[in-house]
Amino acid sequence: DAADASSPLEEQHAGAGAAVSALPSNPKLFLRRYQGTWVLETWVPGIVAIQRGAFAPRRGDVVLASAPKCGTTWLKALAFATMSRGVHPPGAGNPGHPLRRANPHDCVPFMEKLFAAGGGGIGSRVMDALPSPRLMATHMHHSLLPASIAENPDCKIVYICRDPKDMLVSMWHFSRKIRPDLEFSDLFKAACEGRCLSGPTWDHVLGYWNASKASPERVLFLRYEEMLRDPVGNVIELARFLGRPFSPAEEAAGVAVDVVRLCSFEKMKDLEVNRAASSGSAGSSPLLRGVREGAFVNSSYFRRGEAGDWANHMTPEMARRLDGVMEERLHGSGFSF
Ligand code: A3P
């Protein structure tokens, strides 16, 4: 695609508004096409900055990767609670746990959003100040990641995917908060054509699927529906993968269960901070406070938290069509939804 920002000329100008505005767009969804993927227009400069080396890797980095509306918020909470359990016990006896005062997005930042903010300076400052091992998140396709993440033996990636039908319904509800006129049928059509946020969805999943097959010790591939079915088993696996397995004493004390309870949909949705009609969290770390801009209030990240809600929004015909598109694109990969 000649208009992608992958040419040297466009690279030179990328980051400047002019270069972003030269990329193909899907204005209805605030998207730009960048290196074969559809990304949020305002995040393009951050992606370019990261690709150009603005992100300085550190041993032990953990990147949580997902397409939007696939369980990112939940994964951020679970990974944060698991990694920090030594300092912040997740049990009910610790009412001051950061996740009881702050939205998960204020505990684990999106890298490309950080590097897009304030000319990129905020990104480096926040990243440098995060304590090791650092936890960060991205919606980037695997193909967009710099080698400092994708090929770094000291960096682990945890990916979460979700049935694209539920992802789409979730995305529609979310997008309507800032675009009330968005018709579900328009979003559906865009998704089938690969032009929705983080599309093409099949490429997003395949990139991480293939990476997890090639390097299972560096890329953990999770499914939202599997996590709903067996959250504790998945948290135990997550802890093991991150090099922080639950000790027999922790297992006996039910620490993994505590993590799951702390991060459960019902608990998180009911927290004052996540009910509040505000973005950002008063209780978040001073580092991340104020970094999130205010388009979406905290409550928008918690809707139903179930599998199968697509049936309330799609006809069987639509479901067959989207399933068919996915099957066709994923054929031969060894992966299916
Ligand atoms: P629904 O809109 O289907 O309810 P993301 O975090 O990637 O933006 O995804 C949001 C989806 O995850 C929403 O799905 C939301 O309700 C669900 N979700 C948020 N927190 C969750 C949690 N703690 N457990 C399970 N699902 C959660």
What do these coordinates show?
Residues 60-334 form the Sulfotransferase domain. It comes from Urochloa decumbens. This protein has 337 residues and is of the alpha/beta class. It is built from 18 helices and seven strands. It has helices at 8-13, 17-21, 44-51, 72-83, 98-101, 111-116, 121-129, 147-150, 164-175, 184-192, 201-214, 224-229, 231-241, 248-253, 255-262, 265-270, 272-275, 316-330; strands at residues 25-26, 31-34, 37-40, 62-66, 135-138, 156-161, 219-223. The protein has a four-stranded parallel beta sheet, sandwiched between helices. Strand 2 (31-34) and strand 3 form a beta hairpin. Helix 13 (231-241) crosses helix 15 (255-262). The longest helix has 15 residues, at 316-330. The chain is globular and about 50 Å long. Residues 5-15 have low confidence and may be disordered. The structure holds adenosine-3'-5'-diphosphate. Adenosine-3'-5'-diphosphate (A3P) is lined by residues 66, 68-74, 166, 170, 173, 263-265, 268, 301-305, 309.
Question: In a nutshell, what does this entry contain?
Answer:
With 337 residues, this protein is α/β, with parallel strands linked by helices. Helix content is 43%, strand content 9%.
What string gives the helices and strands in order? HHEEEHEHHHHEHEHHHEHHHHHHH
List the uncertain runs: 5-15
Strand content: 5-15%
Helix/strand structural class: alpha/beta
General shape: globular
Could you give the topology of this structure?
Elements: H1 8-13, H2 17-21, E1 25-26, E2 31-34, E3 37-40, H3 44-51, E4 62-66, H4 72-83, H5 98-101, H6 111-116, H7 121-129, E5 135-138, H8 147-150, E6 156-161, H9 164-175, H10 184-192, H11 201-214, E7 219-223, H12 224-229, H13 231-241, H14 248-253, H15 255-262, H16 265-270, H17 272-275, H18 316-330
Parallel strand pairs: 4-5, 4-6, 6-7
Antiparallel strand pairs: 1-2, 2-3
Helix pairs in contact: 13-15
Adenosine-3'-5'-diphosphate binds next to helix 4, helix 9 and helix 16.
